[in-house]
Amino acid sequence: MLIVACVSLTQEVRKGILPSETFNKHALSPQFLLMSKRDLVRLEQESGYLGPICLGRVIFHVLWSHHRIERLYFSFTDNFDDDQDLRFRQTAILDVLCLFAQGRSRPELSRIELREIENYLRERPEYPLWDGRIFSEMHQWFRQLMSGFIGGLEGQLMQEKIYSRHSLAEIQPLSPVEWKTSDMLTRVRWIEHLLELFIRPVLAADGGGIALIDVDDDSLVISFTGVCRQCRGGRRGTLLFIQQFFFSLSKNSVKLKVVDEESFTEAS
């Protein structure tokens, strides 16, 4: 009976239902999980803290230095009472992701794969941690998570660069009435001026750029140029930042949808 029970338990571990010793170390005693508000307050006071990147239940906290992630932490928005097995798996993945992310630049960060993390978590190299179904589910979740994280990181870095160089108080905002009654030329001039002053210098520093394609009552259509054209992971974050940027300049009154012409990606 004991042998049968041990075999059954080992099978459950490999399916991802129960944590192995290696998995347990990351799922139950994670090194990079912020456990309390005191931990977060202490982190926010450190140099290079970019602020939270909220992605559903997961919140990333980034310390950035010399164009690389110095340290990466994570927290959850709730207690995951509905699915403890999922909580175990996600906690372990996130903890190893934070470990792997240290010292990586944005392009290097985007190359982290779930298989690399799963191999690290294996108790024995020859035994997969999860079966095919669970790995497929976690892989889909991980891809969406990384896409959102890289996009959010891109937006945070743009915000830091822009707001550290300029004062938005110097800009004359457009009210909703002024926006609705202005002609196309006035709108284009206002947007182009802001793109040229704030957005393009930041993108150009990394070899990228942005072009204004079209403007109407409630949206902007833009096109990425240079390295930004290939940086799919950062596009969403850049679009979202530009959208929020114009929203803040209009005193939170003129909300324009920003659309990437090439990929038809919308900031939302």
List keywords for this structure.
single chain; 268 residues; alpha+beta; Sufe protein. Chain: A; GMP Synthetase, Chain A, domain 3; 2 domains; four-stranded mixed sheet; 17% strand; elongated
Notes on the protein architecture:
- With 268 residues, this protein is α+β, with helices and mostly antiparallel strands.
- The protein has two domains: 2-160, Sufe protein. Chain: A (Alpha-Beta Complex); 166-266, Fe-S cluster assembly (FSCA) (GMP Synthetase, Chain A, domain 3, 2-Layer Sandwich), CATH 3.30.300.130.
- The chain has ten helices and seven strands.
- The protein has a four-stranded mixed β-sheet.
- Strand 4 (208-215) and strand 5 (219-226) form a beta hairpin.
- Helix 2 (21-28) crosses helix 4, helix 4 crosses helix 6 (114-121) and helix 7 (132-165) packs across helix 10 (232-249).
- The radius of gyration is 22 Å and the shape is elongated.
- It starts with a helix and ends with a strand.
- The model is unreliable at 1-19 (pLDDT under 50).
Brief overview:
This protein has 268 residues and is of the alpha+beta class. It folds into two domains: 2-160, Sufe protein. Chain: A (Alpha-Beta Complex); 166-266, Fe-S cluster assembly (FSCA) (GMP Synthetase, Chain A, domain 3, 2-Layer Sandwich), CATH 3.30.300.
